[in-house]
Amino acid sequence: MTPAVLVLAGPVTKDEVTGLCDDVRALLEGSGAGVVVCDVGGLGPPGLGAVDLLARLQLAARRSGGRIRLRDPDPGLHALLDLVGLRFEVEGQVEQREPALGVEEAVEPGDPAV
């Protein structure tokens, strides 16, 4: 299924946050995909207001049984989210997983054989 997209443009005021959370819930229920892609490219300069907005959108999505994925985040916003301890899935970012088959990990001397 193709996830729904919510475009976040310009600085978002506190009054708009509740409506955007409702939009995330409605998109999750309407699409059935379990993911809403939030296009944050036009959100404006990164700041704590954007962090608060994204945290609230993620909370609304989780409460509805889904999650949000970021599209086109500013590197500064990505760094700020990491700084405050919020992890978001980002479109196009490689998912962390096990190394490919045939790749050997380093072994310390004295480690027991498996």
UniProtKB/TrEMBL annotation:
Transmembrane residue ranges: none
Pfam family, any one: STAS_2
Top-rank taxon: Bacteria
Domain MlaB-like STAS, residue spans: 6-86
Protein name: MlaB-like STAS domain-containing protein
The species this protein was found in: Streptomyces davaonensis (strain DSM 101723 / JCM 4913 / KCC S-0913 / 768)
